[in-house]
Design a protein that fits this description.
The protein has 273 residues and is mainly beta. It has one domain. 12% of the residues lie in helices and 49% in strands. The strands form two sheets. Strands 3, 4, 6, 7, 9, 10, 12, 15, 16 and 17 form a ten-stranded mixed sheet that branches. It has a seven-stranded mixed sheet with strand order 2-1-5-8-11-13-14. The longest helix is centred in the C-terminal third of the chain and has 15 residues. The protein is globular. The mean pLDDT is 93.
Length: 273
């Protein structure tokens, strides 16, 4: 009698979410919708012509080998605000790397605000993330990505691990913004360097691409006074970099900046829950 050895592999979280919007009677309406696995999208009621999309990872967090894919297509003359139900938590990886891929397309005269809540990286987490955006010549795009290296209030810190973040943004097929961030190995020692984060454990990048970049620069610079960060503008693009001692301090800086870049509109309500 031959006994077959049974092999098992850890269960992994996977999900795909896809959303397309169109303009109808002066409002942004749903055109296509798809969700699979741990990826869910909810569309709360709005009181203006825009659409709000809340993306959800029902797995509650990610670890090595997990994968999430999101795609948002904003048709001509549409407006979509995309956010997350909660902070995305990246837990210790025993093997493999968690992957998050986001693709956004914005049509003629459209605007997408990509406003996920913070990503929290726990000790020995491994995450590879990418953001790919295709903009029409007349489209606007706002992106905010905030990262916490552990939760300082809980006595947690990311000492070692991996974090890769890749952005590629194109307008009319032409690359207008590219950046690659890689923190690997002894992350705490690396980020303690003055040229990196100077010991800060919370940081964010804010990017706006559109015709109001120069005007927004004059608005946000006073908001940065007294904080660790800076803003620069060129070729209809505004980039803001921020660091802070913890997540709470970072939010206190981020929220008024986001509101300013949204012409006074507040952050999505889920940010305040």
């Amino acid at each position: 009698m031959v006994t077959a050895a049974l092999s098992t592999r850890p269960q992994r979280a996977e999900g795909r979410g896809y959303l397309t919007a169109k303009a109808l009677n002066g409002r942004t309406r749903l055109a296509e919708f798809f969700q699979e696995g741990a990826a869910k999208i909810r569309l709360p009621d709005t009181f203006d012509a825009s659409m709000e999309a809340v993306i959800i990872n029902t797995a509650g967090g990610l670890t090595g080998g997990d994968r999430m894919d999101w795609r948002v297509v904003a048709g001509p003359a549409t407006r979509i605000d995309v956010t997350t139900q909660a902070c995305e938590k990246i837990y210790k990886a025993s093997a493999g790397v968690a992957e998050i891929s986001t693709r956004i397309t914005v049509g003629c005269g459209g605007r997408v605000d990509w406003l996920p809540q913070e990503t929290i990286l726990f000790d020995r987490a491994a995450l590879s993330r990418r953001l790919d955006v295709e903009l029409d010549e007349t489209a606007e795009f706002l992106a905010v990505e905030a990262v916490l290296l552990g939760r300082k209030a809980m006595g947690e810190a990311m000492t070692t691990g991996l974090f890769r973040d890749r952005w590629r943004i194109r307008r009319g097929g032409r690359l207008i913004h590219a950046e690659d961030l890689r923190l690997e190995g002894e992350v705490a020692a690396l980020t303690a360097e003055r040229a990196v984060l100077g010991g800060q454990v919370a940081f964010a990048t804010v990017l706006y691409a559109g015709p109001s970049a120069e005007r927004y620069l004059a608005t946000v610079r006073p908001l940065l006074e007294g904080h660790k960060g800076g803003a620069s503008h060129w070729n209809d693009k505004l980039v803001i970099r921020l660091t802070a001692a913890d997540g709470f301090a970072l939010r206190k800086i981020l929220i008024p900046i986001i509101s300013a870049l949204r012409n006074g509109a507040p952050v999505p309500k889920v940010w305040n829950l």
